[in-house]
Design goal:
five-stranded parallel β-sheet, globular, alpha/beta
């Protein structure tokens, strides 16, 4: 499993972070949302199979923005995608790395603020599930991450 430095574009001051407010930040830091049961992973796989245009995710490049503890990242990797996952909360990334390693998956996890994250890479799918509505400016967040979508690729965001 690949890992980048401890932070990448992580804001140091609470006014600079993507969290809507300090209460939101505290909840996410103290209580990582973990969905580690195979039923949840099966549900995610079924949603992808039922609602996406691709018949296979093999070798598709996926950026999972706000990956949390890695549930979607793991599913994308298990069905063949090449995954780069980012999250603002170090404890979430730590849990995600452990879960991916436990499953023998090669997922690149990075601690990063979606508003300051930068990469030259472009992705077939930029996935952002349940994140933008917790930020200080959902539309600005969507605009920022949309630039990482490759030509012919798709953004997958909900809810706004």
């Amino acid at each position: 499993m690949r890992a980048e430095g401890p932070t990448m574009g992580l804001a140091r001051d609470r006014e600079e972070t993507g969290f809507q407010n300090d209460d939101t930040r505290q909840v996410y830091e103290e209580f990582p949302f973990t969905l580690w049961n195979e039923g949840s992973l099966d549900y995610c796989r079924k949603l992808l199979a039922d609602h996406w245009r691709w018949t296979t995710f093999k070798s598709l490049r996926v950026l999972d923005v706000g990956c949390g503890t890695g549930c979607w990242s793991i599913v994308f990797s298990q069905i063949g995608a090449v995954v780069h996952a980012i999250d603002l909360t170090p404890v979430h990334v730590s849990v995600a790395r452990k879960e991916a390693a436990r499953r023998g998956l090669d997922i690149r996890f990075t601690v990063a603020d979606l508003f300051s994250f930068e990469t030259d890479e472009r992705y077939d799918l930029v996935w952002c599930n349940g994140v933008l509505h917790h930020t200080r400016d959902a539309l600005a967040g969507l605009r920022h991450i949309a630039k990482f979508v490759a030509p012919g690729g798709l953004p997958g965001c909900q809810p706004l």
